[in-house]
Structures are given as structure tokens and as C-alpha cells.
Amino acid sequence: MPHPGWPAELTAGPVLLRPPRWRDARAWSEVRLRNEEWLRQWEPTAAGSWAERHAPGAWPALRAALRRAARDGTMLPFMICYGGRVVGQISAANIAHGVLRSCNVGYWVDGAVAGRGIVPTALALVIDHLFAEVGLHRVEVDIRPENAASLRVVEKLGLRREGYYERYLDIDGAWRSHIAFAITVEELDGGTLLSRLPSLPRPPG
Ligand SMILES: CC(C)(COP(=O)(O)OP(=O)(O)OC[C@H]1O[C@@H](n2cnc3c(N)ncnc32)[C@H](O)[C@@H]1OP(=O)(O)O)[C@@H](O)C(=O)NCCC(=O)NCCS
């Protein structure tokens, strides 16, 4: 049975979210290699060097794993494009159906385009899609207390603080505590999360 709401392309202004493609290898590798310092401290602990894990040749296996998870219905992995260029990723992971109908969303963006409201827009698009098309009831975002920029993202969208998880995720070589934020569909009162944003990002240039 096809996974509801997948594949999908979601767009708002200059921000486009779409499934990963084989031909993203070079663009993905370039942005990931250039952003090691920016991203590493917030990312899952992984074996191998950053350079090895983000070479263009690493993309096919990663993309295949994302595609498999999407087909199985456990994940919605989107590339974030801005002005037609790949600048990041946003994924709904750990999708549970049945009585829970919930998931976790994670994201990153190229430091060169940070601060333009790209990820708040992307997160709003994804959550609206998860509620309207995938049929989920709840979405969670877990953020390290030190991650001021990411805390601003959920604040801009009015996600509710739900709790504090001690030593919760294995990030950058250690078990890191996280603050859990969540939203359930009722909190949108029939509206969209995207409409909570005062404006969309301006196009690049
Ligand atoms: C967290 C992150 C996804 C936010 O994405 P974004 O598209 O830049 O989000 P915004 O444009 O709303 O900016 C959020 C905050 O970042 C800060 N910021 C703005 N410009 C910035 C810049 N050039 N560099 C660093 N931080 C900046 C500001 O505090 C901003 O809040 P403000 O709009 O109230 O000033 C992005 O900073 C990122 O990818 N960080 C590294 C990976 C990461 O932390 N992932 C999330 C793990 S939970």
C-alpha cells in the first residue's frame, strides 16, 4: 500500500521541499562538506570521518535508505531547496501509525543562508502536510537547550514545550539532554501552521 502523503512536493515562496534524488549527490556533498563546523555539534554520532561520510559517493546508499524508509511509511525525507538550490534537509522520522499517529521532525540548513526563515517555513510546510495528508495527530521536535537558533524556530511557530529528556540522544559523541516541543492537530483549530508566520523568506540574491 502506498504511504499516504508520499512522494510529495511542498512549496511556499522560494522554499521547495521535495524527495531526495540520485542527482543530488554533488550538491548535497558540497553543502555538507562546507558546513562541517556549523552542523557537526548538532548531528548524530556516526562512525567514519565527516569527509568520508559526505563524499558524493556516500549519497546513493544514504538516498536508498531514505527512500526505503519512506516506502515503508516510517519516514518522510525532504530536501530543502531555496531559489532552486539544495540548502538543507528536513525529515519526519519515527512515524508511528495506529493509536499514536505521531513522529519526530529534524532539520538542518546551510549556514550561508541561515537567518532567512527558511527552516521555520519548511517546518510549517511539513507539519501541515503531516496533519492534512499523512493523517498524523501529533508532531514532536527535540532540541538541545544550547541550540538557540533551533529554539527560535519552534518559538516562531508556537510549538508547545512538553518536557525535558535527560541524556536523550547520542549527538556529537555524547548523550545529550533535549527539550521536547510538540503540536497536535487540534491546536491549529482547522488552520495551518504556515499562516502563523508573518512573512515568507525573500528569494535569494
Ligand atoms: C537551527 C536552524 C535549522 C535554523 O534555521 P534557519 O532557517 O536559519 O531559521 P531562522 O531563519 O528562523 O533563524 C533562527 C535563528 O537563528 C539565528 N540566526 C540568524 N542568522 C544567523 C546566522 N547567519 N547564523 C547563525 N544563526 C543565525 C537567529 O537567532 C534566528 O532567530 P531570529 O530570526 O529571531 O533572529 C539552523 O540554524 C541550522 O541548520 N543549524 C545547524 C543544525 C541544527 O541545529 N539543526 C537543528 C537541530 S535540533
Number of helices: 6
CATH architecture: 3-Layer(aba) Sandwich
Net shape = globular
Largest sheet: 8 strands, mixed
Estimate the mean pLDDT confidence.
97
How much beta, percentage-wise? 25-35%
Describe the protein in words.
There is one protein chain. This protein is an alpha+beta fold and 205 residues long. It has a single domain (10-188), classed as 3-Layer(aba) Sandwich (Aminopeptidase), CATH 3.40.630. It has six helices and eight strands, in the order ββααααβββαβαββ. The chain has an eight-stranded mixed β-sheet with strand order 1-2-3-4-5-6-8-7, with helices on both faces. A hairpin with a 2-residue loop joins strand 1 and strand 2 (15-18). The longest helix is centred in the middle third of the chain and has 17 residues, at 118-134. The termini are far apart. The model has no long low-confidence stretch (mean pLDDT 97). The protein binds coenzyme A. Residues 38-39, 42, 107-109, 111, 114-120, 143, 147-150, 152-153, 156 line the site of coenzyme A. Coenzyme A is lined by residues 38-39, 42, 107-109, 111, 114-120, 143, 147-150, 152-153, 156.
